[in-house]
Amino acid sequence: MPVPFLACMALTAHFYGLPPRVLPSIQAVEGGRPGLVHPNTDGSADLGLMQINTRWVVPIAPFAVFGTEALAERVVETMGSGYACLMAHHGQVTIGQSWQQALAVAEEIEEQAAITYGALLLGGAPVLSAAELAGTVAQFASYGQRKA
User: Please, is 105 exposed, middle or buried when counting C-beta atoms within 10 Å of its C-beta (0-12, 13-18, 19+)?
Assistant: First the structure.
């Protein structure tokens, strides 16, 4: 796996408190690669290296004035079979099998937005130096529990 992918996975694992080997293991099981689109029987698709399902990609509905049929139609069209969409210059809309599920989706979107916004305020996500990157890659070779 290319070093930039490992560095991104290491940073993501660190941020979420995951063991560093988890994300490369998921990628190995999913078998994704950049640009790969795998259609699913439910109409969704799995995308890219980690095969992230399109249901997790939050689309943006084009702008329309609040409280109008036009905005409602754009939200329905944009959301499709997903669980959420952002409304350009408004906010988000989420749905679920229950209000608890819709709230959980909304909270996840807000958390990811806060992380992205915070990173942008700080000048973007930190980029590891070549030495840090090499150290991270080397650490993957010996990190984690060993099979008996």
Answer: buried
Q: Which residues pair with 6 in a beta bridge?
A: none
Q: What are phi and psi of 59, to 5 degrees?
A: -75, 165
Residues paired with residue 37 on neighbouring β-strands, in sequence order = 47
* pLDDT classification of 58: cutoffs 50, 70, 90: confident
Residues in a beta bridge with 92: 86
Kindly state the helix (H) or strand (E) to which residue 39 belongs, with its residue range: strand 37-39
- DSSP class of residue 56 equals G
pLDDT digits 0-9 by tens, 63-115 = 999 999 999 999 999 998 888 999 999 999 999 999 999 999 899 888 877 77
Distance, CA of 15 to CA of 138 (rounded, Å): 19
Q: Give the closest residue to 48 by CA, choosing from 9, 100, 94.
A: 9
Q: Is the pLDDT of residue 126 over 80?
A: no
Q: Which helix (H) or strand (E) holds 74?
A: helix 69-79
Kindly state the DSSP code that residue 95 receives in the 8-state scheme.
Answer: -
